Amino acid sequence: MADAVTRAVALLMAAGLSAAASAADVVAAASAADVVADPTQPPAGYGVSQRAGDPQSPDPISLPQPIRLQMIARDGSTHLAVVNGLRVRPGDAIALDGKSVKVVAIHDDSVVLDRDGHRELVELTPHVRLK
Length: 131
Fold this sequence. Notes:
The protein is α+β, with helices and mostly antiparallel strands. The protein contains one helix and seven strands.
């Protein structure tokens, strides 16, 4: 009888170890499957030219950095604007495309920038005039 008990215990231990090993495999497989991709990120390779040297594909380095005029505030005669997340006043300079761009003027609905000697008007609401 002791032999039968010893064999049964050995069999149960072997089954338990086997079950623990397969459970670890299931957990590892589930962990790999549970990796969730961020849906707000562009897919891999997005924006990269498929063929190097393709003249029709845009070169991401040569495109100018976009200017986002996000806000204009006024307190009496003092104007303040937020351009590309930076708070600026007339006379301030910000870095765009690795170059310094000077804020020439801030109006009620637009900002005038001096980029490489060229004046650029950035409107808060393009093609809509405030009354």
